[in-house]
Amino acid sequence: MLDHGTPRTEDIATLIASRRPGHSLPAALYTSAAVWHADCDTIFGRHWIAVGVTCDVPEAGDVMAIDIGPVSIVILRDDDDKLRAFHNVCAHRGARLVPPGRSVVGKLVCPYHQWTYDLDGALARAPHMGIDFDRSLHHLKPVALRDIGGLLYACLSDDPPADIEELAAVVEPRLAAYDLRNAKVAFEQDLIEEGNWKLTMENNRECYHCASNHPQLSLSFHAADFGYDPEGLTETEKAETNALLDAYASYEQYWRDEDMPFEAVEHTVGWPTNFRTQRLIIAGLGESQTPDTRAAVQIPLGQARKPWMGDVHLWGINSWNHVMSDHAVVFTAFPLGPDRTLVRTKWLVHAEAEEGEDYDLETLTAVWKTTNAEDAHLVGLAHRGICSPGYRPGPYSRYTERALDEFASWYVSRMQANGY
Amino acid sequence: MLDHGTPRTEDIATLIASRRPGHSLPAALYTSAAVWHADCDTIFGRHWIAVGVTCDVPEAGDVMAIDIGPVSIVILRDDDDKLRAFHNVCAHRGARLVPPGRSVVGKLVCPYHQWTYDLDGALARAPHMGIDFDRSLHHLKPVALRDIGGLLYACLSDDPPADIEELAAVVEPRLAAYDLRNAKVAFEQDLIEEGNWKLTMENNRECYHCASNHPQLSLSFHAADFGYDPEGLTETEKAETNALLDAYASYEQYWRDEDMPFEAVEHTVGWPTNFRTQRLIIAGLGESQTPDTRAAVQIPLGQARKPWMGDVHLWGINSWNHVMSDHAVVFTAFPLGPDRTLVRTKWLVHAEAEEGEDYDLETLTAVWKTTNAEDAHLVGLAHRGICSPGYRPGPYSRYTERALDEFASWYVSRMQANGY
Amino acid sequence: MLDHGTPRTEDIATLIASRRPGHSLPAALYTSAAVWHADCDTIFGRHWIAVGVTCDVPEAGDVMAIDIGPVSIVILRDDDDKLRAFHNVCAHRGARLVPPGRSVVGKLVCPYHQWTYDLDGALARAPHMGIDFDRSLHHLKPVALRDIGGLLYACLSDDPPADIEELAAVVEPRLAAYDLRNAKVAFEQDLIEEGNWKLTMENNRECYHCASNHPQLSLSFHAADFGYDPEGLTETEKAETNALLDAYASYEQYWRDEDMPFEAVEHTVGWPTNFRTQRLIIAGLGESQTPDTRAAVQIPLGQARKPWMGDVHLWGINSWNHVMSDHAVVFTAFPLGPDRTLVRTKWLVHAEAEEGEDYDLETLTAVWKTTNAEDAHLVGLAHRGICSPGYRPGPYSRYTERALDEFASWYVSRMQANGY
């Protein structure tokens, strides 16, 4: 606040109110530092944010520190196998307790003055503080944490939105067969996109850009799944689209018979917790998002031993996921600044799958490594263009960018619900 | 605005009003981020700014993207050989249309979603937008562009200053003989000076610093052309100055006979479009700004086949130029931040001159490459000093820094004329 | 001011008033850019700041430029051997006169336009300014400078705090025997800590963190000198502490007999000039802060030819010092930004001591090079943690962090005394 003058809240509110439905956001909502701080406070500070996967901390004493905007948190598994999260800040002089990434601990010991916390956050030892010092007043500040089907969501607010239960109710059964909780992280990639986090999310919510920009992804992905202009198709495209519709008819019958939930569930405008899920057909040979569209891992995830399971696709506020029979790809996006966003990608495989034996790491990761790099380039182009006074909010396609329009509407309503 | 609090305009106005004539500007006019943004909006946003040369885009379909502060524009030659400029921002989701530097296109195709524009800015194709989408509402935003004697000036304002006609009336005939429109760019250098753009311009408008800092330039340049204290000269300097005055008498007679305009024309305080031009004698052997003061290029520019044509010197708001019989050097300065300025230098030669045959590139570029590096160092020293609270606006020499005083007065008046 | 909106002063004042005694400061006092600027203006701009040592400029014409926050100053020894300091800004166009670090000059000549100053700051020459130019109005702006026992303090204010006399009265006699004025700088290290300058100073004012973080320093340093919880000691620690108390009884008798001042003098809350000094016992063999606790230099400093002289420890606003019989270590801290602080360390030895002969440089510098690196890591951890909204001001130990509580109280009172 101190570094941004007073009228910020009102200015942001005016800007938010000026958003024109059906159009991309006013420039400053993407580019302003004040808005970025407001986004960190509001969107990332008061909503359920995807932070990782259960198998990031598979054993008691496993600890992982991650940053959500300016906030560092520790996620850990305590001695009773319970997952917990805390602010990564010592209650004494504020030092970071745990270094970035993963580590293993008995207790949490602050490196500065050895204040020592149990894994439930209680202050167990504080040297030199005197005989009358009440340690119970100085526990670690807890952070709300939920494990939903092996995906971890944290909420920094003391009053987390209750509708996380709806995400759990929809997603838990859909992911059950894949047993992601007992999977392992085969590979993790951090990539910085030179753009606002909302551009990262917009980019992910449409496949309008796929055909021209993602030749490799397009082998396993049906861009038409994300909408198309029915009157703008060439004859060839019409034929392809009709074939895809036919395929869905068959697949959905199969999925229904095999008891695999597939229907699209959208939980967006009007709710704090924004998500969408649907089971999608994988293109080509239909098995996995790999260069040859075949499964990359010999051992399927969990009980996912059936063919044609497709891709359980799940979007969230700062995340997107593709869960397939042989592996899952989990993406989380964290704001680093108005014009910088971290995209963290994790490839999950069965815990017993061995690299080099059961899967080739390059084959497993090739499609999304390539696609991530292409998307980073596009997000950078969008951000740089929007920084120019020549930018005016442009029209979203009602066919291929409806989800972006809804994401923008959701963003506006969440900011307004939180005082802007 | 959002990131800078409210009272900015008033504060800047106060600061501008506090400028003391005959003295350098108050520190914050050089160092403040708020002022820098105001400069971008006002000076670079509402005046005619030098952006390049006609021969940057010699053929239909040639495109060049450049940044003017936070604004990226595209300059191109359309299929009818007409020069045009647009904001480099797609009307759809704001992505940069064209990468930095030069490229060749048939149409302008946005890399993000393939919105496609004709070279006149009309939106020719926008996939998936639906049958009722009115493309005519989504053309590229044009930018005013003028070609004056082969030098390009752009104005980002919708209401460009009309006095560009005076620049055209004065400069067009002076440059006619050199035919810069049909020259070619033999070399281009981008150099970042660690100082405010106004310090870059001040540095260029005096040669008080030349004798001690530019030994190489001084071989072909008469520092006395830019003023001297008549009472402070040593006997040797007096003799040199008298010799130069005699030389001008002879040269001017010759220039008059040969119909080469030479008189100084100053169009500074009181006008939006700030320029000064004069034909100068080249020192030494008098041919060109090269290490040995001889022409560096065998083929003269245009019809510049006469000896002793000297140096047509032209200053502008963000530019300076030296046009000689064998080559021209065109400098443009663009603000990158309060303390960073891009200086772009282009060496122009006859389109048919071949490197290695008709000119040696190192000989052609040596003087100004060296001089630019020296100037960058000086601008950095000035900027760092001005950042210190120990700085007070200092007195300009009435003899050697009159042009700086006028530039500062022009700056103050232009900011005031635009609401500060 | 311009870049920070209006209500800054009030906001900072509110923040400062909210500081809770016995606790670390509110986060924004460590992290805000506005507060950092206020600190530069107030603490570094209106107090006596340690800037170096007399033997940085041993000869007439020796010049040293250093930065105090955004201010660059020149410290020099003039032709009459008088030490002087000036703003490092030319009175003409504001260029930096002198490059960073040390140089030797006859006069101070501005590299830009050769304005030339005598070493007393008078403008001796200003070419092209005209016959009626009054050079006496354009001397260099002086900076107050004091040499206290060979340590240099500067004050940027025109009204420097008078209580520097108390520092002089206490410290001058304590340092006399070491003759630091005629020592030499054997080595100098610049290290950037990734934290606010107040965290650098807090870190230095306690040894609570030493046992776990400074194994090498702990060989020559008694952490107990900086406080301990008497009721929290193990039996072993109790025995050690009692032994140390006994040692002090013997040492102090010896110091009294030998006329070596040793008593702790504290001059902190309630005064502009904050300092504390005390003669400490060196642990181990008791000679010096070296890996084997023996003297590193064969020739003692000045007349420091007696054994068991211990360590004359001196803290200041931005400095700490250890003066031992064979060498002194002088630390100064300069703010580079809200989250960056320069720690400059100088190792002083007798001017005639020869490296390789009288001392081994690695042995001389090992302990504090290692300790500085360890401290930089800790300051970085503290700063990063405090940036998180999870930080709350934590309780200082009344036993081991009393000096921090006093430093924080001093800081609050100084800011309030200066308008916040």
How are the SSEs placed, and which strands pair?
The structure is a homotrimer.
Chain A: H1 8-17, H2 27-31, H3 33-46, E1 49-53, E2 62-68, E3 71-77, E4 83-87, E5 101-104, E6 108-109, E7 116-117, E8 123-125, E9 144-148, E10 151-155, H4 164-176, E11 183-193, H5 197-204, H6 210-213, H7 235-257, E12 265-267, E13 275-280, E14 311-315, E15 319-323, E16 328-337, E17 340-350, H8 361-386, H9 402-417
Antiparallel strand pairs in A: 1-10, 2-3, 2-5, 3-4, 6-7, 7-8, 9-10, 11-17, 12-13, 13-14, 14-15, 15-16, 16-17
Helix pairs in contact in A: 5-8
Could you name the CATH class of the largest domain in chain A? Alpha Beta
Query: Shape of chain A, please?
Result: globular
Order of helices and strands of chain A: HHHEEEEEEEEEEHEHHHEEEEEEHH
Structural class of chain A: alpha+beta
Protein name (chains A, B, C): Rieske 2Fe-2S family protein
Domain Rieske (chains A, B, C): 48-154
GO molecular function (chains A, B, C): 2 iron, 2 sulfur cluster binding; iron ion binding; oxidoreductase activity
Keywords (chains A, B, C): 2Fe-2S, Iron, Iron-sulfur, Metal-binding, Oxidoreductase
Task: Write out key terms for the chains shown.
homotrimer, Rieske Iron-sulfur Protein, Naphthalene 1,2-dioxygenase Alpha Subunit, Chain A, domain 1, 2 domains, 7-stranded antiparallel beta sheet, 28% helix, globular
